[in-house]
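REQUEST ID: PR-0412
SUBMITTED BY: lab tech R.K.
PRIORITY: routine
TASK: structure prediction, single protein chain
INPUT:
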Amino acid sequence: PVDFSRPRHSDLERFTREMRALAGKPVFVHCQLSMRASVFVFLYRVTELGEDPELAYDDVLKIWQPNAVWSRFVREELQARGIRVPLAAG
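STATUS: complete
OUTPUT:
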């Protein structure tokens, strides 16, 4: 569970550990409205799989336009790793 109003770095770390443990297996990532899931999967794809942030972020935008809290979370997580922030993420 992730507090929608306060995603934390530790939430992403836990998600990443779980995804690594399931590498090579089919995985279904779900949250109530796919908002949290879309951002966590985006960050995993970019930080762990090395996908292009601009292209991967397009999949987030198919689901929702992240609010200020989630946009900040994306920016902070990417900037902490020296990864460019997609233009649409502000």
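NOTES: The mean pLDDT is 96.
REVIEWED BY: pending
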